[in-house]
Amino acid sequence: MADTVLDKPHAVALLQKLSTDDKFRASYQANPRDALAGLGIPTDKLPANTPPLTTLADKLVFAHAFAQVQADQADVCSCQHPPTVRMHFGK
């Protein structure tokens, strides 16, 4: 299965929600595909079968990544196998 790459606005929205919103975090952990669709990501760009996540990083981890992306210190993409955040530092 190929990775699904989110555009920067969607990746930023995902990082922001994962760093601040407990209800979204629970939704994302239970059903990542539906949670991503709720952010406006077209479902045709997402894998059909996305299992629930057994763990999710602490909100501070996502807050740090969110701050780096906002400051253009890192580029982001979200990979669907299962959904995770992968950071690419530098330009």
Kindly state the percentage of residues in helix.
Answer: 40-55%
Major sheet attributes: 2 strands, antiparallel
Number of domains: 1
- The chain-level mean pLDDT equals 81
- The strand line-up of the biggest sheet is 1-2
Gyration radius, to the nearest Å? Answer: 12 Å
Shape: globular
Tell me the series of helices and strands, N- to C-terminal: HHHHEE
Describe the fold and architecture:
This protein is of the alpha+beta class and about 90 residues long. It has one domain. Helix content is about 45%, strand content about 15%. It contains four helices and two strands. The protein has helices at about 10-20, 20-30, 30-40, 60-70, and strands at about 75-80, 85-90. It has a two-stranded antiparallel ribbon. A hairpin with a 2-residue loop joins β1 and β2 (about 85-90).
Detail the topology: elements first, then pairings.
Blueprint: H1 8-20, H2 22-30, H3 32-38, H4 59-70, E1 74-80, E2 83-89
Antiparallel strand pairs: 1-2
Helix pairs in contact: 1-2, 1-4, 2-3
Keywords, please?
91 residues; alpha+beta; two-stranded antiparallel ribbon; 4 helices; 2 strands; 15% strand
At a glance:
This protein is α+β, with helices and mostly antiparallel strands. 45% of the residues lie in helices and 15% in strands.
